[in-house]
Amino acid sequence: MVLKVKELSVSYGEKTVVDKISFSLQKGEVLGILGENGAGKTSLIEAVLGIRPAVYKEVAILGQSPIHNRKQVFEKVGVQFQESHFPDKMTVSEACQQWSVLYKATAPYQFLLTKFGLQDKEKSLVKSLSGGEKQRLAVLLALLPNPELVFLDELTTGLDTKARKKLWQTLRNYKREGLFIILTSHYMDEVEALCDRIMILKGGHIICEGTIAEVINYSGQASLEAAYLTLTDEEGEG
Known about the structure:
This protein is α/β, with parallel strands linked by helices. The chain has a domain at 1-73 and 187-238: 3-Layer(aba) Sandwich (Rossmann fold), CATH 3.40.50. 36% of the residues lie in helices and 24% in strands. The chain contains ten helices and nine strands. It has helices at residues 41-48, 70-74, 92-100, 109-115, 131-143, 161-176, 188-194, 212-219, 224-232, 234-237, and strands spanning 3-12, 15-25, 30-34, 58-61, 77-80, 149-153, 180-184, 197-202, 205-210. The strands form two sheets. A six-stranded mixed beta sheet has the order 5-6-7-3-8-9, with helices on both faces. The longest helix has 16 residues, at 161-176. It starts with a strand and ends with a helix. The relative contact order is 0.16. Residues 3-228 form the ABC transporter domain.
């Protein structure tokens, strides 16, 4: 099993934002975590990674604890957060070099720059990149250590349609090569393009999980978007 989470909870003061969630990731899967803003998606990922205080019965990534075996785990795990911050004077190549020294072995970053369409930006300041270029750089850095598992939080925010589809294809290629992926997204077409299984959060709870077909069938709707809106009652809350 790639990932196992049992009864994990996250609280901010007296407010519980993730409430006793349990789930797992099997080999060969891409798992999508869906939910409106504030549903608990990012807090859940941060808690699983051990960077957000949490209470749980078990969290194991690639068979090890992200708390007690942190160095060993993160040699095999990549992370792209919703927001990435870089020093003002840092260039793209410097960002890649800085990330590279954190790991024992990495992919050649020049190869990845070409793969992600950033080869012409190597000497550019990160702060000068467009929002979409920064997003591609963040995903590139998550894949730099040749991880077995990668967490992608709001994968294609800021990308245009062509760039999104190109990134999806890149990730499908990585999946075929054996990469396991957990992603959060607000885009149903992205979820359908990439995910084998999804779980929908609302108010810190899992309200539905399964394959896309299973979730659609459970909702009684004809599409994933309609199923999502029905299950989360987002239309009703508008």
